[in-house]
Amino acid sequence: MGLWNDLLSFLGWGETETPAPKPSRKPTATRRAARLRLEPGALRTGVVEYIGNTFAKVQASDVKAVIFLREMADEYIEHPSAVLHEGQTVDFVLLGPSEKRSDEWVGSINGASEARARSALSHLSPGDCISGKVSDLKDRGAILNAGEFEVWVPITELAWSWIGHPSEAVSLGQTVTVEVLRIELPDGWLNDKRQRRAKAVGSIRAAIPQPESPIIPMAFSGLPFKVSAVARTPRTCDPVVLYLLEELVAARTPEDVQATTGLPRSTLDGVHQVLGAEGLVKEWRPTAKGKRLAEAVSLARTLTADPIRGLFVSSAHPSSQFIRAGNGTAGTDYPPSWPRPPFNKQAEEEFARASDESIPELLINCIVTTEKRELLSRLQEDDRMHVFLQRDGSRPWKPVYVPTPEHWLLAGLWGAFDPIGTKPFRPANVTSRCRDFLVVRVSALVRKNGEPVATLYFEPNTETLWHLRDEACVHFRERKGSVFPDLPDFKGTSVSLPSGEEVKHLQPESWCIAVVSQG
Known about the structure:
By secondary structure, the protein is α+β, with helices and mostly antiparallel strands. It has 11 helices and 23 strands. The strands form 5 sheets. Strands 18-21-20-19-23-22 form a 6-stranded antiparallel beta sheet, covered by helices on one side. A 5-stranded mixed beta barrel has the order 1-2-3-5-4. Strand 6 and strand 7 form a beta hairpin. Helix 4 (239-249) packs across helix 7 (288-305). The radius of gyration is 42 Å and the shape is elongated.
């Protein structure tokens, strides 16, 4: 049999050895399942096992990735060996499955830091407070290193005071606490390296208490006003006609009215005809319409007898523009030899025209007492009534001292002036600032090529001296007056203008109102 088998084998008909199968390039079920579990953006750590001319291959525990030249470093390199060597351990991020090999992914070493940053940022929310070290100062803000990611702090969020450069608030290497304002995660970062700039935007000033502004009494001009109301009556109804209507509503007879007023019966008959023509009475009895009108007249009289009085301080801080009569600091303390304090003429004229629903809600909240608030509300909601504001008294204005935040006042001055001497606090990002200032125009003796005079401005409430920086932002209104407050004494101190000239002597010239634009 052995010979026979050898012959059959020789002829190719017998049993032969099966050659070893070649390794299949198709992914096995295990590899396919592992590949499906991976996602673009996943971060892995692997070992460099091969370096080519334009790419390198990295093997992690569950995936092999090919890293092309452009994804190896932030800067341009000509060959992978410039940054990698075989056996090196590197972090990389998966960009997507390879189109050439089903068991490989395309990865990026360059994008690993972005992936770590995005992972760390995913655990943050606006309002969180974190620490970081100042790593760079730009003209418009500072960059903080917070470990896996960076925090951008705009210059307006570095301090509660205004600063011209970030170095005035923080220094390189300084560790600070910031409050997260928002998280920025640009889309398309896996395929577009320009979008790899995930970061947090934070605020240093939001993480520290806001400096509390001192409150100072500042003089303003107040417009005395009162709230009045009248019933909407027909044109034919004068006070005599309305009086008879109210008497009839009160169940008085024509004879009673005649006895009380002494009017002839013919006059009463004529008034009765007017009321009848308007549908207010019928045969000396008030109609429903007449009763409603009489009620409206009575309500208006209730408010007019004891009106709501106050002062509209047009140039004051928005929260202090309405003062209940008798509640403001006495205006008698204001020096009578000084000019009229600041006021806004346009705002006063618009306010004086307010009526019905256009009466400011802030006015009601500030000056209307609880017992009168219900009455005023009824009058405003009643279509029979007309509620309006009118000037009160014979004087068109009254000086009044209003408690004013000093920072609000200084913010307005800084809008167009630079201080001379010690720099006062300069608020940053103010939404409201003082616009109108009563200031003294001052002549200052200086040393400058034979030009001995410079013009400065003294603000009496803060007792500060200022130099005009931007003429386009200020409009001056001249005021009469020859008595001035005491000016600063610079004896023994060196005080200079922004241009460098030294201030020597101050001489008051005139009063003026400086109106600073809100730009």
